[in-house]
Amino acid sequence: MEERDWSSLPFNVLAAVLEQLRWSSHPSFALSCRHWRSAVPPFYPAWITPLLLSTARVGAANLRYYSPYYHYNFEVVASCDDGGVARDAKICCATGRHLALEKTRLALDVHLVTGAVRQAPHTAYADHFDFVIYDGGGARRMFGIDAVLPLAVGYTSQIGDGDEGEWEDWTLTEYNVNGPRLRPSPVTNPVFHRGSIYLLGEHGRLAVYDPCKHAEGFKILDKPMSFGFEQYHDSYLVESDQGELMAVLFGRRGTPVHVIMLNEKKMEWEKVESLRGRALFTGTLTSMVKKTKFKWMQNRVFLPMFYKWPETIHVNIVSRDGELAFVPKSSSSNTKYSTMGDHSNGTCCEKCADVWSYKLGQQEARENWGAERVYYGVWVDLH
């Protein structure tokens, strides 16, 4: 009989082995030999970088994830199987694998993997909250913030364990017509920082709410008084992966770009010259600063604006041993299997030019003329 080695294992046996392995082990499997590589189905790790999540079209429940790394849109069809309750809802924020949506007098919690939708009880507090945010420790509490009139806040907590628990009734601060007023930056986002919620106002003022002192509501801090920069149009608040409270300021056409950090001893905003190898994802109601091993992404600020709309791939989002991956729905997909893409050499390729980004310290920033912006999207980190 002809002698055969491991490289001659039947295709169906290799496929069965792959189903038992973590997604992150597939690249090593594919490097074994050409035959083994041919058995690896096309997939795209969902954890490789933060993703821009948006709806596929207005009023639809399909979710679309844009990957800055691959420059693809991964659309998950019927990802919110909720009987229509999530349709026409506004995307508010995300934490981990949970997405918060808001409709008139209704807040929704969506699990991004299972598609399960849970709704918090209705509230007659206002027609709608201006912001909805999860707590800093996960998705166990949601806070609704009214920022148009005097600042007010309410919260609801999950009853029970796991993702099957219900949401209890809202606990609201007492409405006070003479309460604190802050003119919030129109596109900014509330941020949990050191256990409290910070809300950024125009010119750099901050309002703070301590959930442990709920009845006191928001308080406007005496300092900082201003950013110290006059030329800016949009501003976003973000807590970094190192626990720093930062703000990102953009000019009317995208430049100039300033990244500033709150010096909490002096209570003053200070200019940030380098992100120390990290990438900043902003421009939505959820912003984040993340460490990245890809050199072309380091010290770069990403905004959800495109010069060329990326290709859309219809996928299933599959969980295996805690890891998530986008798997094309059609096995005949012409997309290439890749875990390192075109950036494995650490350089910036032509794809990077399709999404608006700014590298700190660059002398000439590309303006965003002709770019198309994604509205009602949020950055999510599915790591």
Automatic annotation (TrEMBL):
Q: Which Pfam families match?
A: Beta-prop_KIB1-4
Which InterPro entries does UniProt cross-reference here? KIB1-4_b-propeller
User: Which residues span the membrane?
Assistant: none
Domain of life, per UniProt, equals Eukaryota
KIB1-4 beta-propeller domain boundaries: 163-303
What name does this protein carry? KIB1-4 beta-propeller domain-containing protein
Q: Which organism's genome codes for this protein?
A: Oryza glumipatula
